[in-house]
Amino acid sequence: MSTEMRQAEFHTQWIKSQRAKWALEKTIPPLPIILPTRSQLNATYQGLLANNAKALGGKLGMRTMTMGQSPESSHTSVSKLQEVHLRNLLAPHRHKGRYLLCRTFLPATRMVAINLYLEDRMGDVITASIYNLPGLFQISDEAILKAYIPEGQIFLIREPWAKLDGSLTTRFLRIDSPSDLVFLDATDPLLQNKSWKTPARITRGLSTAADDFRIIGNNLFQKGHFLLAARAWSRGLRNDPTLHSLHLNRAQAYIKLRWFGAAIADASHVLSRMDLSPAIREKATFRAACAEYGRQQYDKALARFQSLEAGAEKESRIAQCKERLHEAETGKVSMISLLEARESLNRDIDVADWTSAAIRVDSASARGGGRRIIASRDIQCGELLLVSKAFAAAFDEEMDKDETLLVVDFQASKMMTATKVAVLHKITTQLMGNASDTDTINALYAGPSFPPPPNTIPSSQEIPSAPIEPYFQRDIDVCRLEQVLSHNSFAPDTDERNSPLIENPFKGPTALFVMPSLFNHSCIPNASWQCYGDVMLIRSVQAIKCGSEVTISYCGKDFESRQKLFKALLGCECDCSKCAMERDHVSATQNIYNLYKENVEKKHRRMEMGKHSWGSRKEVTGYLQKIVQAHLPLAELPSMELYCAHLDVMQCLEREANVKVDIPLLFTAIRHGFDALQAAGIADIDSRTTQLASGKTQKKVARVLPFSKGRLPTEVPFRSLVVIAIHISASFVSVSEQLLAERWLRGAWWLHEMWYGGGLSFFNRNMQKALQGVPLPASVEYVWE
Ligand SMILES: C[S@@+](CC[C@H](N)C(=O)[O-])C[C@H]1O[C@@H](n2cnc3c(N)ncnc32)[C@H](O)[C@@H]1O
Fold first, then answer.
1. Run of H or E including 524
2. pLDDT for 200
3. Tens digit of each residue's pLDDT (9 = 90 or more) over 321-369
4. Ligand 1 centroid vs 8 CA: distance in angstroms?
5. In angstroms, what is the span from residue 441 Cα to ligand 1's centroid?
6. Backbone angle region of 382, left / alpha / beta, with phi > 0 → left and psi within -120 to 50 → alpha
7. Which residues line ligand 1 (CB under 6 A)?
8. Cα 769 to averaged position of ligand 1 atoms, centre (Å)
9. What is the CA(529)–ligand 1 centre distance, in A?
10. Where is the SET domain (predicted)?
11. How far apart (Å, rounded) are the C-alpha atoms in residues 374 and 565?
12. Which atom number of ligand 1 is nearest to the Cα of residue 447?
């Protein structure tokens, strides 16, 4: 059992006990709150600091985070709320219609949530845990935490939720939604005539000069703390609204935060002034152009870049805009550029969104949110249907290396990938600066406990009518966001989702896309998706008739991961024909899957011992026989398990044949390649292994694919299908069957072109590893019939 598995086991038990405590808390009647004393909180604070420093050697170590406990958010505006003091709170209870005024009297600390130590106007104290505060995800720098939440910072907490902790002894406030925590300045009108029992003991020592804030902001920006930098510059602007440079600096921070509309508002505000120096005008135009580019308004960005004074950057930016405009118009993306970006570990891919005119959103009477994607004309196999950049995405390498973040899904009682929390955090940050995006995200399906979403998706990244400060303009509903993520997020793995061999189910990227979220699921879909960084491409895998639904697969191909998906996501049985057939043959399906799983474990063990995963000839053929036998009742269905078993035999025999120069054995290997392709669902395979024609006819026959151009199998790892065709071609080269070698090379090309696109150059680049040292027929034209 791996460390992660052991942790998972531990956490399953832990979740159970936590669930029991949450359930118990719900049965406790709300009673007047027992508040801690200042010295108790001081001791808690000191203890936490010491604990952090000692147990973790200065590093953050392991943290556990939960999702799916129905987090709470306030939906009532402050003007409609009335003040409540700590001493009047009940616990456990959410105080609807109330707000609490408080301020910090100790520095904030972080466990998973940010812990605040608060005193209210009566001088009473309590701790509060706040989740999803933008800019503070996995923050370990105390100075930054202090800059974000200085001692003495005044807050208004909307509809405070007093809870009991896990031991049911300590009372604290829990704030799930960051828009429920309102940052107030001492000058805020709400604080007029409001006295505090204890004097404000901390003076922040900050100058009020706008220029000082400029310098503070610059430092924070340089360290990558864009939100804090924007806050510093905002404070400077409050002191001197005429400082254009602060607006432009803030626009740059907003661009980094992907708050493009807000950045344009700042730049436009500057550009609207009559008294601008040419340098400031130039800078403002540049900022506005970059922000237009960020929100994919490439024509507007182009016009702005073109209006700049000549310069090297001007030309390169113009060229970029033109490239994006071409992509946005035609959907023609450079597959090689996408692959190179992926290989360079660039996750933030620069490519224009594009939706083919061949698809459109349609309403559906069933299936969750009630929308679906349909073909608006006949679609051919291998057509690119969609290019879509993620609304938000998080990858493992972005996570803090010094901290193991274990995330448990409270609802499903299982571990989940930590990047899911990171994405939730990114979404809240994005919504903070792009209030209009809330409508976009709210239009995604959020499960049966929320009203059905509208039929259309409102566009995002609107430009505010005036510059905005970096605080929430609209409420965040974290509960809804969690549900949206649960029902719509993808794991943007490099190739298509294929999880049976994934070793660590708690790692892996998470992304939320908008348009791809409208595709419904099928276990035998007619379209497939692939990701390059944070960009998803969707292609058809078969001809689709006008008016038919276009579906993708949400999950891995194996039985178990599909069953998990249905339970967790669809909430019902999948209605595809594959599932129907499997339901009719439950024991055969389970039997095959058990054999497969056992074999995967054996493969892992062999690999750990530095051997070939497939094992000896006896082992592979023995396993194949068992799978063939088990698969008989399901013979009509494509089978990943049967495919993999044939592939293993092929690899094993091919290797042996090449070492021994054993031609008959090589032919047997080739036949297993044919069988593998057939098991995957490729039809009408020409399984001859000797020359078919000679002379003039040869050239013509060699152009004909060695199988029929039907549906591309989505039930197996597709890349390996292409590799099989390449290996069959190479085997025919080694036995001098030129014509067959050409046909199978074309077979590999066709499969690759339909699935990945990008032509021959992309085939060579994308399959580079598989092609290394493999003898393929030369001078073959990249055409097929
Ligand atoms: C990503 S959304 C798909 C689009 C959704 N229909 C909408 O209108 O937003 C996923 C949800 O659609 C529904 N769904 C998708 N495919 C389904 C299927 N094959 N069977 C049943 N429900 C499905 C489930 O409710 C699932 O949680």
1. none
2. 78
3. 999 999 999 999 999 999 998 888 888 999 999 999 999 999 887 666 6
4. 29
5. 16
6. left
7. 367-372, 445, 487-488, 517-518, 520-522, 569-570, 572, 574-575
8. 37
9. 16
10. 357-555
11. 23
12. 27
> ∠ CA 232-235-236 to the nearest 5 degrees?
90
Q: pLDDT class for 569, splitting at 50, 70, 90?
A: low
Nearest CA to ligand 1 atom 11: 368
CA of 416 to the centre of ligand 1 (A): 21
Q: Which residues pair with 184 in a beta bridge?
A: 154
- Span 703-709, average pLDDT: 94
Which distant-in-sequence residues (6+ apart) come within 8 Å of 611 by Cβ? Answer: none
Average per-residue pLDDT for the chain: 89
Residue 550, CA distances (Å) to 174, 358, 543 in order: 43, 10, 10
Where are the extended beta strands (E) located within 338-429? 354-355, 359-363, 371-375, 384-389, 392-394, 403-409, 414-416
Q: Within a 10 A sphere around the Cβ of 54, how many other Cβ atoms? A: 9
Cα–Cα dist 449/439, whole Å: 18
Which pair of tokens denotes residue 331? 């959907």
Question: In angstroms, what is the span from residue 351 Cα to ligand 1's centroid?
Answer: 27
Residue nearest to atom 7 of ligand 1 (CA): 369
What DSSP string describes 436-497? THHHHHHTS---TTSPPPPSS-----PPPSS---SS-SS---HHHHHHHHHHH-B---SSS-
pTM score: 0.92
- At the top level of CATH, which class does the domain 3-191 belong to? mainly beta
Tens digit of each residue's pLDDT (9 = 90 or more) over 4-43: 566 667 777 777 877 888 788 888 999 999 999 999 999 9
Query: Which residue lies with its CA nearest to atom 19 of ligand 1?
Result: 521
Query: Where does residue 647 rank: exposed (0-12), middle (13-18), buried (19+ CB within 10 A)?
Result: buried
CA of 520 relative to ligand 1 center, distance in Å: 5
* Test site for ligand 1: of 367, 482, 518, most ligand atoms within 8 A of the Cβ: 367
Burial class (CB in 10 A: 0-12, 13-18, 19+), 334: middle
Whole-angstrom Cα distance, residue 222 to residue 422? 22
Q: Which CATH number fits domain 210-330: 3.30.930.10, 3.40.50.720, 1.25.40.10, 3.30.420.40?
A: 1.25.40.10
For the chain, domain boundaries: 3-191, 210-330, 631-771
According to DSSP, the residues that pair with 125 across neighbouring strands are 119
Check: CB of residue 116 under 8 Å from CB of residue 104: yes
* Distance between CA atoms of residues 26 and 348, nearest Å: 43
515-553: per-residue pLDDT in tens?
A: 999 999 888 899 999 999 999 999 999 999 999 999 998
CA distance 459 to 745: 44
Q: What is the pLDDT of residue 497?
A: 45
Is the ipTM higher than 0.90? The answer is yes
The first and second tokens of residue 70, run together, are 């129905």
Closest ligand 1 atom, residue 572 Cα: 21
Instruction: Tell me the one-letter amino acid at 121.
Output: R
Q: Which of 397, 426, 418, 570 is nearest to 512 (CA)?
A: 426
Which of 167-181, 232-246, 398-412, 745-759 is predicted least confidently? 398-412
| Ligand 1 centroid from CA 516, angstroms | 11
Neighbours of 82 (CB within 10 A): 8
pLDDT at 559 over 90: no
- Answer left, alpha or beta for residue 682, where phi above 0 means left and psi between -120 and 50 means alpha: beta
Confidence at residue 60, expressed as pLDDT on a 0 to 100 scale: 52
Q: Is the pLDDT of residue 373 over 50?
A: yes
3-state SS string over 495-508? CCCCCCCCCCCCCC
Q: How much is the pLDDT for 69?
A: 78
pLDDT tens string 90-120: 999 999 999 999 999 999 998 778 999 999 9
Pocket test for ligand 1, best of 391, 444, 445 (most atoms within 8 A of CB): 445
